[in-house]
Amino acid sequence: MDRLVLKEPSAWKELYDAYAGNLSVVGSRYLREKEDVRDILQNSFIKMFHSMASFEFRGKGSLRAWMTQIMVHESLKHLKQQAKLDFTTDVAEVADFVSEEEPDLELFTQKELLGLIQSLPLGYRTVFNLYVFEQKSHKEIAMLLGIKESSSASQYHRAKQVLMDKLTELKTLKLDAT
After folding, report:
1. pLDDT score recorded for residue 20
2. 101-140 burial, b if ≥16 CB within 10 A, otherwise e?
3. Backbone angles phi, psi at 149, to 5 degrees
4. pTM, whole model, 2 decimals?
């Protein structure tokens, strides 16, 4: 950690080599274009480089969590700058679609699941990722994205239903192929 604070190039290379792949996956959950993910990854490491002295070690996993949080925030900032976020679904529109049946995720590869998440409309995908992977509440998501709490909830529920439908479809295709 001291080497990072002292900005030793070899320490930063080691950090990049150790975490770039993981952080790219995080960025890919929010951004579809590989070039955007690479740009955001670079911006995130620049931000980490400049703010490493303020990082507070809180035990195993705290560095990874801090880096992930920066990647998420940089991804959201990029989406907002591109004015690509769209939150048009109303809660009433979603209520009839929600299913409580949980899919058997072990039938699918990580790549397939990431592909399905990436195929979601941007608003759904963003809220889904923040809620599921970043464990943000709908209130926190609403504040982060500048939307109503009810919009966050409706986006999440609609995303979940769309994913369930896509998982069912993919499962059927896999079973038919065997």
Report:
1. 96
2. eebeeeebeeeebeebbeebebbbbbbbbbbeebebebee
3. -60, -40
4. 0.79
